[in-house]
Each structure stands twice: as C-alpha cells, then as structure tokens.
Design goal:
The chain contains four helices and eight strands. It is α/β, with parallel strands linked by helices.
Length: 128
Amino acid sequence: MDTHDYASVRYLVDDVDAAVEFYTTHLGFTVNMSAAPAFADVVRGHLRLLVSGEKSSGARATPPDLAASPGRNRIHLELDDLEAEIARLGEAGLTFVSDLVSGPGGSQILLADPSGNLIELFQPAARD
C-alpha cells in the first residue's frame, strides 16, 4: 500500500525497539520501516503508527512541555472478541490501565504501550 492509503498516527516513545516489539508481538502490527533507535513505522490494516524516539524529527518538533507525558488521546482497535483478547494479553503479562467498560455502543478497555501511550481495545455492541 502507498502511505497515502493509511491513516497515520505518531506516538512519541521512550524506546523505539520496545515499542516495535510491543505492537508487533501483542497487537498484530507489522514493521513497514525501521530506523531505530530514532523511528519506526508499523502498520495494522489501514493504520500506520509512527513510533518516534527522542532523536526523531517528530519528537524534536514537539515542545518539551508537551512531550513530557502522554495525553488522553489513543488509537482505537476494533476487535471481534474482546474477552478473548483480554485473556490473551493478560496471559502475555500485559497490564490494563482501565477496567472493562460497556455501554450502548460496545465494550472497551485501555492498555498502555511501554511509553504510556494508550490503546483502546473495542468491541462494538451486537446490532439487531
């Protein structure tokens, strides 16, 4: 796929290699390109996640007061069987940063990557 076919999100990370390992091992991303330790480009479907270490241009362009901590923004990954995914990731030793929450739109739980960036795992509610 051409990079114009992706929705791209940049996450500033403390360790590019650890981020690549986390996303590829646990969440089904594949490496599109790596220039570790500065930067890597991982993809899942049409999502292109740019993980940028402190030496990357993306990190250097971010004011220090904004780069100091992750925000509440997150990527949203839709799943067919959230409970099975929670069990699989728990067995892999990952810790969730929220409880499972359900509402009229579906169910979700939050996971953090090694740098504290949030990932929302979501299963839509069944529709009649």
